[in-house]
Specification:
By secondary structure, the chain is α/β, with parallel strands linked by helices. Helices cover 31% and strands 19% of the residues. It folds into 2 domains: 3-92 and 171-254, Rossmann fold, CATH 3.40.50; 97-168, Hypothetical Protein Ta0175, Chain: A, domain 2 (Alpha-Beta Complex). It contains 6 helices and 12 strands. Helix 1 (33-44) runs parallel beside helix 6 (239-254). It is globular, with a radius of gyration of 18 Å.
């Protein structure tokens, strides 16, 4: 599928790690002390970490200020929170929030009419740009059908190992990241950025026409047949252990003399 990450000489150029959270930073749904130490080690080496997650605005506003990162993008590219700043920056403009949420609720009701088993996610009340429901035991064919239903209603759709997202068309992690890089990190070229993920809602981060250095933690392999864009490299370990493997590889590459 992809080359092993430790074989990449490109890591020595990395200055910013743009990473998914659930299934990529977490291990069995939790942050570990090893992960937090890896983030601290990257920061000490001058490597910035930016989280890009499908999680809600409510979650991410806290995460961005509590963790050793430079910021976090919420709702798959919908909003950006700079570290130590609880004010969000809208990456997807929404002129009328109340109307927007009502349209999302109406679309979800139509999906639920055909799939009664789907349930609104617990964090949906903390969302701004998108609407989420739990993946539960939906099959790949059912997920594709739900995607087509959302398209017919004028919405985009994606899913992760945690949730399904009804979202504005064109809103994805790559577009949100590119906007944040342009506006807040203009000194970084795209070959100085490594993007990291584990599931279909990270697919845009694996588009090598934008991001030449992309990494999937090992658990991304189970989605290989569902991804149009594949990560350029893959870790040996899964989930947060895979991210720590990448972190160690980056730090080790910094000690290799440049030719």
């Amino acid at each position: 599928m992809s080359k092993h990450i430790s074989s990449s000489h490109l890591l020595r150029n990395i200055r910013l790690v743009a990473t998914d959270m659930d299934g990529t930073l977490t291990l069995e749904g939790k942050f570990t002390s090893v992960l937090l130490q890896a983030l601290e080690n990257l920061a000490s080496a001058g490597i910035n970490v930016l989280i890009i997650t499908g999680r809600s605005a409510g979650w991410v506003s806290g995460i961005s200020s509590l963790m050793p990162v430079v910021g976090a993008i919420a709702e798959n590219g919908g909003l950006f929170y700079r570290s130590l700043n609880l004010e969000s920056v809208a990456l997807t403009p929404i002129p009328d929030l109340s109307q927007h949420r009502q349209h999302l609720a109406t679309t979800f009701a139509k999906l639920q009419n055909q799939f009664p088993q789907i349930q609104e996610s617990a964090d949906n009340q903390f969302r701004v740009t998108d609407w989420t429901f739990d993946v539960s035991d939906l099959t790949v064919n059912q997920l594709e059908y739900l995607s087509n239903l959302c398209q017919s209603e004028g919405w985009g759709f994606t899913y992760s190992n945690v949730q399904c997202h009804i979202k504005p068309q064109g809103q994805d992690k790559a577009r949100g990241l590119l906007q944040v890089l342009r506006e807040y990190f203009p000194d970084y070229s795209l070959d100085q950025v490594v993007t990291v993920g584990d599931s279909p809602n990270d697919e845009s981060l694996f588009d090598q026409s934008y991001f030449p250095v992309s990494v999937g933690v090992a658990n991304v392999v189970k989605y290989a047949n569902q991804l149009q864009y594949q990560p350029a490299y893959i870790t040996t370990a899964a989930e947060g252990a895979g991210f720590c493997e990448l972190s160690n590889s980056i730090l080790q590459s910094l000690s290799i003399p440049k030719i």
